[in-house]
Amino acid sequence: MKGKRLAAAAAILFLLSACGQKTDEYDALAVFSAEPSNRSDYLTNASDVFLWDKLGLGGVTVTAGEATEQTVDKEHWLTVRAELSGEETMLYLQKDPQGEWRLDLAASFGVNPLPLSEWGSEQGFFTARVTALLGGELPEPYQEHAATHYPVEIRDYTGEGTLTAVFTRESSDGEALHRLLSDGGAHRVLLRLRELPAETETPLWRVTQYVAEGWFNEEVELRGQNTALLEAVRQGRTERVEALLTPQNVHVTDENGDGLLFLALREHHDEIAELLIRMGVSGQNDNIYWHDMRHLLDFEREDVLTLTGKIRKGGGNAGCTAESLEHYLVQRSNNSALMIFLSAFEPQGALSMAESRALAERYGLELETPANLLDVAVLEGSAQTAETLLMDGFRATELLKEKLRLEPTSFSDQMLAVLGKQNYFGVMDEVLEDYGAFRKSYLEVASDEVEEFHEQYNRFLDAAVAGEQTEAYAIMDSGLLSAIEQQLAAVQKVERPGTEAIGALWDLMFRYADMMDTAGYYYKRTAYSTYAVFRRYNLSRFQNRLERGEELRNRFLTEFETYERLYRNTL
Question: CB of 133 within 8 A of CB of 185?
Answer without folding.
Answer: yes
